[in-house]
Amino acid sequence: MIDKEMRSKAKGLVRPLITKPVQPLSSHMHLFLLCILFLSALFLTLSEAVCNLQDRESLIWFSGNVSSSVSPLNWNLSIDCCSWEGITCDDSSDSHVTVISLPSRGLSGTLASSVQNIHRLSRLDLSYNRLSGPLPPGFFSTLDQLMILNLSYNSFNGELPLEQAFGNESNRFFSIQTLDLSSNLLEGEILRSSVYLQGTINLISFNVSNNSFTGPIPSFMCRSSPQLSKLDFSYNDFSGHISQELGRCLRLTVLQAGFNNLSGVIPSEIYNLSELEQLFLPANQLTGKIDNNITRLRKLTSLALYSNHLEGEIPMDIGNLSSLRSLQLHINNINGTVPLSLANCTKLVKLNLRVNQLGGGLTELEFSQLQSLKVLDLGNNSFTGALPDKIFSCKSLTAIRFAGNKLTGEISPQVLELESLSFMGLSDNKLTNITGALSILQGCRKLSTLILAKNFYDETVPSKEDFLSPDGFPKLRIFGVGACRLRGEIPAWLINLNKVEVMDLSMNRFVGSIPGWLGTLPDLFYLDLSDNLLTGELPKELFQLRALMSQKITENNYLELPIFLNPNNVTTNQQYNKLYSFPPTIYIRRNNLTGSIPVEVGQLKVLHILELLGNNLSGSIPDELSNLTNLERLDLSNNNLSGSIPWSLTNLNFLSYFNVANNSLEGPIPSEGQFDTFPKANFEGNPLLCGGVLLTSCKPTRAKENDELNRTFLMGIAIGYFLSFVSILVVRAW
Q1: Where in the chain is CATH 3.80.10.10?
Q2: Is residue 92 pLDDT above 50, yes or no?
Q3: By its UniProt entry, which InterPro entries does this protein fall under (predicted)?
Q4: What top-level class would CATH report for the domain 450-593?
Q5: Phi and psi (nearest 5°) for 236?
Q6: How high is the pLDDT of residue 299?
Q7: With helix as H, strand as E and coil as C, how does 278-326 read?
């Protein structure tokens, strides 16, 4: 009953509102409603803009100091900076910025100090950009909540900001866990910033590699950062001794300080780091012995101490490092023998003991236990005895080098069991039977590099084309049998090496002419036939090598082990780690070749080096040589060349060496460009050469005088005809 009465009253109240006509709004009311709508919209907009205003202004200031080669940041398109690219905010009411992550963004410019105003920033990643300039003053200490800082692979320069302590700030602690400043242009001593670093109690990883830092390696972080796991100081200019205090970083797993100027011995305290997995100290000036206590580092997987001055023997208990995967001790003064316990390092993948003073035999070492071994380099030592057959039980081997030892015997057919073998370097030993060696090795299906130089002395190399089976050496790219004093002609079976790119047949006793089919090898770009007994003329076909006529697209560039050459009789070997680091070259020095230099040589536009010295070549220097725009070395000395030096050679802008001494050349030496820098000795032995660096005046020859008379006579006739013609026209005009 009550409900009915209430409903009827309600209807009575509503009905008048419906039945009465709607009155138009006044202008004041209309304006009032518009203001309400505007304020509502503004409120909704502001409620979406949750980004902290100070952080937003700091980011805008940062973006104003950088530009991008990829695409603009476009941070001004939205009011809410939390939605901007690379920005993350926390969940607080005013949404502070906590992350700036813009790696590989193509950014250039400087790092604005406004970033220091983003006080809750916990991660800053600007790696792999092109940012430059110094880091802002006080940069580290103002960002006291920063946990991850990655500015690697930029161009930041100058010294680290000097972080000074004010009042109680010397007792401040910082949250930083990962600090990566690697691959920049930073310099100076790190110790100056120690106030900040000493407060990094949570530091886990510290990487300043690939800069120009100097002074001693800092170690005070080991006192303040008990969680420190990674230290990387490599590729800088640090000097002095390795601090014993590094032994206090008990949780350290990675210690890298290679490629510096460190000296002294490796402190024994380092061997207390029981968690250490990587010890990387190569290319320094370290001395002393490798302490046997190093075998206490049972978790060590990588030990690199190469290119130092270490001496003594390899620790006899090296086999205790059962987790070791890489052992690189090459280029030191280590002596003794290879410890038999090394066979216990069954996880070993790479073993490099090259260039030491190791000796003894290798047949007792149980290589069969090293089933994971892929790379073995024992070159340039004094190992004796037979080539160890047990090595062929390492089924994973891809690269072997025993070069520069005193090994004897023949190559065993067991080498065919190494199905993954791609690199074999056995040069400078006392191996015999080259016919047997080549017969066996041509069956290695993946072999791409074969260097047998300085072996098989005075043997006759097999020469018939059918010596090589149709599928022999299917992937061979580098072939070297130099300095073996091999007899016979250049082997005809070489024509079947369709993949060969580098071929060294130098310093042998090959006779006969240079076969033209060498010019048909499609990928050959480096050929050395020097110091043989070759006769005849240079075949035109040789100067049609396709790989020297146009640039080849590189692939499979890296070599399994570096290759060392001794070009141009220099005292130090040139090291090549990539196949295409070899300069495109033709060496045919010191043979008995006759005839002229074919004009077809001008087709080899990729050629960098051409050396034909010490032959009996005659004729003129081809003007077509000026087409070789990449040529860096040209040596035609000690021949019978005549005529003049083409002035067009001055257009060879990369030519850094030119030698035509001891020929029969005549006329002026070109005096433009780099020709003014070549030494006098490179032109001597040519009595009729003049001018240039010889500092002798060029007297006109009889032929030149006749040419001058002829030109004068012809000029006189031309002038006479012209004057006669003009006089006739004048007479007719009158």
Answers
A1: 596-700
A2: yes
A3: Leu-rich_rpt, Leu-rich_rpt_typical-subtyp, LRR_dom_sf, LRR_N_plant-typ, Plant_LRR-RLKs
A4: alpha beta
A5: -135, -160
A6: 98
A7: EEECCCCEECCECCHHHHHCCCCCEEECCCCCCEEECCCCHHHCCCCCE
